[in-house]
Specification:
The chain folds into 2 domains: about 240 residues, Type I PLP-dependent aspartate aminotransferase-like (Major domain) (Aspartate Aminotransferase, domain 2, 3-Layer(aba) Sandwich), CATH 3.40.640.10; about 120 residues, Aspartate Aminotransferase, domain 1. The chain is about 40% helix and about 15% strand. The protein contains 13 helices and 14 strands. The strands form 4 sheets. Strands 2-10-9-8-5-3-4 form a 7-stranded mixed β-sheet, with helices on both faces. β3, α4 and β4 form a beta-alpha-beta unit. α2 packs across α9. It binds pyridoxal-5'-phosphate (PLP).
Length: about 400
């Protein structure tokens, strides 16, 4: 056996997180994480769970009783949705216009479903007419869509129309709101969604590791009337509900510190007010958009589908996107990220989520981004970008 490893104390570098997530975390949330642990069935912790559920109903805009937190990241909530709703042999309809729609299909296939797609190019939303055609052709029992596609920065409009089409075909609708919930308007009940999930580390601005999810009664009836067992022990919703519902029985050990953190992050949103939180993301994301566009880089998304929390900025001709992201990180401590899949080398993905959606952070990013791009030989106008951002922040009253 070798000697004990000699690793140093943990001293993370100072970063501003403006990529596709995680986002910066408010000091109050970090402090909540550092408070003492209690047992996972301690009365105090049970009250914390109750608070989290109440706060989540507020943020999801739902009265759903089955509103809870999955112990895992956003992908665990995605998997919970599809493994519980689908039985082997059922057909699921998922989008082909982004990386996470594709992941939905992979997850559903492992749950034994037949996967069919409704197609749109990366960078475009789904057209409800195509969704209707896909329903007529394939008769899926479950339709999943991505409200904010992190790989493209596209917000899916027409949600009530999509849920209407699915319900007319007696199907269930799952919405992925990972980079959107708590950042842009989303109305679970009013828009008639059956299952909605998100992650903790994006607009909610808590550390990664827990994933909020909500099931309406209609979806729960389908879950309760399954013929076959859910294909995951850990993510079987009815078993998890033993812990999150009235019973409060052991299912697995609750992630205490992450749950504290999520509670504090949600409390911050409730204090600000959900509508004001959406408005701030729009205002500050709008200043970011104004800055890059004035620099000479119009976003690679149409205004109608713009997702203020994730901005796809085109990579200027002749510029190496990897060098730009690396220099922003090394010289300015700012994280932004390049494109995924077919958009690799085509776009930068610039986030503006949660505690990172603040005027000073966006102003700092625009200054640094403009300077690095110009230095890398891009045909951009950094001064015009900085001026447009500060004008937008001032005029928006941020
Ligand atoms: C739209 C979307 N869905 C699902 C996920 C998966 O979440 P996680 O990485 O937290 O597992 C992500 C992560 O970026 C996402 O952006």
């Amino acid at each position: 056996m070798d000697d004990a490893p000699d690793v140093g104390e943990l001293v993370p570098p100072d970063r501003t997180l403006m990529g596709p997530g995680p986002s910066d975390v408010h000091p109050r949330v970090l402090r909540a994480m550092a408070t003492p642990l209690v047992g996972y069935l301690d009365d105090y912790y049970v009250d914390v769970m109750d608070d989290v559920q109440e706060l989540l109903r507020y943020v999801f805009r739902t009265d759903n009783e089955h509103t809870l937190v999955i112990s895992g990241t956003g992908s665990a909530a995605m998997e919970t949705s599809f493994t519980n709703l689908l039985e082997p042999g059922e057909t699921v309809l998922v989008p082909s216009n982004g990386y996470f729609g594709d992941r939905m299909g992979q997850v559903a296939a492992r749950a034994g479903a037949e996967v069919v797609t409704v197609d749109a190019p990366w960078g475009e939303p789904l057209d409800p007419a195509d969704v209707e055609r896909a329903f007529d052709e394939h008769q899926p029992t479950v339709f999943g869509f991505v409200y904010g596609e992190t790989s493209t920065g596209v917000r899916q409009p027409d949600v009530p129309e999509l849920t209407g089409i699915a319900h007319d075909h007696d199907a269930y609708v799952v919405a992925d709101t990972v980079p959107a919930l708590g950042g842009v308007e989303f109305q679970t009940d009013e828009w008639d969604l059956d299952v909605v999930y998100t992650g903790s580390q994006k607009c909610l601005s808590a550390p990664p590791g827990v994933a909020p999810i909500t099931f309406n009664e209609r979806a729960m009836e389908k879950v309760r009337s399954r013929d076959s067992e859910v294909r995951s022990w850990y993510l079987d919703l009815e078993d998890i509900w033993e812990y999150w519902g009235e019973e409060r029985n052991y299912h697995h050990t609750g992630p205490t510190s992450n749950t504290y953190a999520l509670r504090e992050a949600l409390r911050l949103i409730a204090e600000e007010g959900i509508e004001e939180t959406w408005a701030r993301h729009r205002r500050v994301g709008g200043a970011l958009k104004a800055g890059v566009e004035a620099m000479g880089l119009p976003l690679a998304v149409e205004e109608d589908h713009w997702l203020p929390t994730l901005n796809p900025v085109p990579v200027p001709d002749g510029v190496d996107d990897g060098r730009v992201t690396e220099r922003l990180m090394d010289e300015h401590g700012i994280e932004i990220v390049g494109g995924l899949g077919p958009l690799g080398g085509e776009i930068f993905r610039v986030g503006c989520m949660g505690h990172s959606a603040r005027p000073a952070k966006v102003a700092g990013l625009i200054d640094a981004f403009g300077a690095v791009l110009a230095d890398e030989g891009a045909d951009v106008d950094p001064e015009a970008g900085a001026a447009a951002t500060s004008r937008a922040l001032r005029d928006g009253g941020a």
